[in-house]
Specification:
mainly alpha; three-stranded antiparallel sheet; disordered N terminus
């Protein structure tokens, strides 16, 4: 037996173990165990990242919808911005004009007018033909009344005044509902326990002032008590407030949770770039699914609205107006996910990706050398940019992502603008790096 391969006597310091030389079989077994452990560790990471990615993809559409609902329900300005276009849309205006005109004409008793006219003519001894002619005036008179009312209502609905009244009414009503659901003590309508109360304090003050101005000086002594009126009691108010609080939580934290899960999926994956590309593509697919769901919901809604209740064109405008911000957010995320997947692919080893990178590098290098030839040199700054190109590239993309996060409700146009700025910055940095001297031979060139 080879003495070098024989284990020595054990001692307390483990010196014999540290000097033990492995045989070829032992080395092969050790390598096999290491490869097995590495494969097992890789499989565990892949399984974990896959689960995280699946959760993120399932939550992505729900997060977009929850954020949109919370935004529209709890933010009065956002709600008014959502419904404001309805007041100026021709289809909605036509529906409102017809509805108001019908209500006014219904309250005008044209038959009573023609009957009174016929009775007056008959009492005055008019010929029967004249009396019958007066009775037949009901149809033309009704049409005349409708024409006059329609013209007056049209003038009001199509004016800027209606737009202002529409926005003001929606702002006040939405703010009142939000105050009631959140339990805030601001505003005229407020929730106290299981009751909804109307604060008439300002009305009481105005009435008291007007009475004093009219000469009723004793009105100044009116008490300040009983300044609220209980509108109604409801046992469902607590549930509505709980739903509002849950909506606030989901609208804020569900998107955050989705982003965290997606980031963890990329971080735990064995191949970060590949998982980033898969995540971007997966989120894009889920956004397409959400857009299809909105289209299906639109068709279902339009089929459920009878034409007698609302004209089809007005129903289409109302649905499209209410969900337009949700549709815009979905399209924006779709564009962001496609860009993310594309960037992750372009940084990979694929032949098209290498060709794109090579062409871009050659172009920017040629521009940098052209600048050097005309005497423009970037010196140490250019050399630093060339040596830290990975950091500058990552910083540019991080700044673009931060700009989109801080952007208030970014749109597709905003994403394209930020992407264009990031690419322009990267091109400028690459040209500056290429314009730096590469060695002593080029320093004076």
């Amino acid at each position: 037996m080879d003495p070098a391969s024989a284990p020595g006597p054990p001692d307390s310091g483990g010196a014999a173990s540290s000097k033990h030389a492995f045989t070829a079989d032992e080395r092969a077994e050790y390598g096999r165990l290491r490869r097995h452990a590495a494969v097992r560790h890789r499989r565990v990471r892949l399984a974990g990242s896959s689960v995280l990615l699946l959760l993120a993809l399932l939550l992505a559409p729900l997060a977009v919808v929850a954020a949109w609902v919370q935004d529209a329900v709890s933010d009065t300005d956002r709600y008014v911005e959502t419904v404001a276009p309805l007041a100026s849309d021709p289809a909605v205006q036509e529906a409102v004009i017809n509805r108001l005109t019908d209500r006014v004409v219904e309250n005008v008793d044209v038959a009573a007018v023609t009957d009174s006219l016929a009775e007056a003519l008959q009492d005055a001894g008019a010929p029967p033909r004249v009396v019958e002619g007066a009775e037949s005036l009901e149809g033309p008179l009704r049409n005349a009344v409708r024409t006059v009312v329609d013209r007056a209502v049209t003038d009001v609905i199509t004016s800027d005044t209606f737009q202002q009244v529409w926005e003001g009414a929606n702002r006040r009503s939405h703010a009142a509902v939000v105050n009631m659901l959140t339990g805030e003590r601001e505003g005229a309508v407020r929730a106290v326990g299981d009751t909804v109360q109307l604060d008439v304090g300002e009305v009481v003050d105005q009435v008291r002032e007007r009475l004093v101005d009219a000469g009723f000086e004793k009105a100044a002594a009116l008490p300040d008590t009983d300044r609220t009126i209980t509108l109604f009691h409801t046992e469902e108010l607590g549930k509505a407030q709980d739903t509002m609080r849950l909506l606030d939580v989901l609208g804020v934290w569900l998107p955050v949770l989705t982003v965290v899960l997606a980031a963890l999926a990329v971080w735990t994956a064995p191949a970060h770039r590949v998982m980033l590309m898969i995540t971007g593509a997966g989120v894009g697919v889920m956004m397409v699914v959400l857009l299809v769901a909105l289209a299906v919901a639109r068709r279902v809604y339009l089929d459920s609205v009878p034409p007698a209740a609302l004209p089809p064109d007005a129903a289409e405008v109302i649905y499209d107006t209410f969900v337009r911000f949700l549709r815009d957010s979905t399209r924006t995320l779709l564009v962001v996910s496609v860009i993310t997947a594309l960037v992750a692919y372009l940084y990979g080893p694929g032949r098209p990706a290498r060709a794109v990178r090579t062409a871009a590098d050659r172009g920017m290098t040629a521009v940098g050398r052209g600048l050097r030839r005309v005497g423009v040199r970037t010196g140490s700054i250019g050399r630093w940019l060339a040596d830290h190109r990975a950091w500058t590239t990552g910083g540019a993309f991080a700044a673009g992502a931060l700009a989109l996060v801080l952007w208030n409700h970014p749109t597709v146009g905003a994403v394209v603008l930020v992407l264009g700025i990031v690419l322009a910055v990267l091109v400028v940095l690459a040209i500056l790096a290429a314009a730096a001297p590469r060695g002593h031979g080029e320093s004076g060139a």
